[in-house]
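Q: Can I borrow your eye for a moment on a structure tokenisation matter? Would you mind producing a protein record, from residues through to fold? Write it directly below this note and I will take it from there.
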Amino acid sequence: MAVDPLKNLPINRGEQLKVETPSQERGKGVRLYDVDMAIAEHMIDTVVPSVEVFREKVKVPVMYGNPERWKAIQKNGYLRDKNGQLQIPLIMFKRNSIERNDTMASSMNRHVSYPSVSQYSKKHKYDKFSAMTGTQKPVEIYDVVMPDYVTVSYEVMIWTDFTEHMNKIVEAFQYATDEYWGDKSGFKFKVKIDSFDNTTEVGEGSQRIVRTSFTMLVNAYLLPEQFNNESTHKKSLTPKKVVWGLETDLTGMSGGNVTNSVVKKQLINEYSDIIDFMSIRGSKKASFVDADTFKLQNVDLPKLPPELDGVFDVTDWFRIYINGVFVANTKYTYEEIGTEIHFNFNTGSADGEGGYVSTNSELGYILENSDEFGVTGKFIEE
């Protein structure tokens, strides 16, 4: 048995957590790119309205201002496409600065983590049998390092042909301020807009351009996927099964009397087989075999202590559930084949209408591969 080198005590494997190796971890940090994408997608999907251009509804395009584009609009005041046409209406934004948020920052961030629990997953799905029998499935626990909180500044510029279009867009942005922007299933960040700067100018020729600019402050958080060659996300699993033993208190045997202590040990040793047997309780899903049989795999039947022979009903070792419905032991027999236990059912006789007759000793239907079989009782999982 393994021994804890610090405490010099046996290690209880039931209390240990399974931790995935770095190659198995699916850590995902929060990057500046994630903040940019959350803001852009929220503007496109939620904030920015459609305007009417030549009697057609047009969704105002949103564009990130890379250095080349931003230089062009700084020089000319507007943006043209490859054919020299003004790109109107248009919304362009770019990230300006990043400042540490001192109101939430902590020097202990990278040394503090918080747990996030996922009760169900693809590997550990919800099923009626486990819920009904109280079987506790492994829970996924994610330890995530505390992120760094920052304030990200964005500059936004809007161009339209008409003041009416501009009013509609500005009203939408004003209504969306002081809200959390982002996808429902992704990252969300609080956005604040203080004021809008509006100008109207005439471009080349006689085309009028209405332009509005404003600064957007985003309260965000950043977390690298790795720091110092260690993942900032660690996934672990709680124990799949904990087997509880019985603690027997023999009345009158307490105290420091040596004779009583010896008698207590003798009684415990004498009835240890009974105590161990009564503490056994298995719970497992079974597998379909055919229309009248399913089986438990990788299990053993315990030996019945001689003292319980004739007292414990061996025909009632199991409680069977099919699709969450309890099935009495009068409707099946079981046999142990190696490390498998096969349950054979009397499905019943045909009723002449395509079904089966259900009685005290007949199931009344055939088993199907899509059925869910659950078994609890006196068996040991290997």
